[in-house]
Amino acid sequence: MRFWYGKRFNSPDDVEPLICRSQQGRLYPDTEASPGGGRLRMLPFRNYVTTALLYHGRPVIDYFKAADPATLMGIMTGGEPSDHGRAFYFILRRS
């Protein structure tokens, strides 16, 4: 994920979870790492209801919390067995 840029929210049922930037600067969805995209739903996480991104082709859920009008804090759960259940924390800024 060296060139990971962010996520693209087209609609609640059409999310591109892994947007990358090529070495030439072009943005593109990484459909190999996240086949089928994803969708948004309201789900509980640690006793709080949050907006969650459910990946269609992977056992992954991202949970989001707004930090300010242009910033989301995120935590990715699930993933591959090699992740050993570890969560990945990230920040998204609106561009």
Automatic annotation (TrEMBL):
It comes from the Bacteria. Residues 4-25 form the GXWXG domain. Residues 37-94 form the DUF4334 domain. This is DUF4334 domain-containing protein.
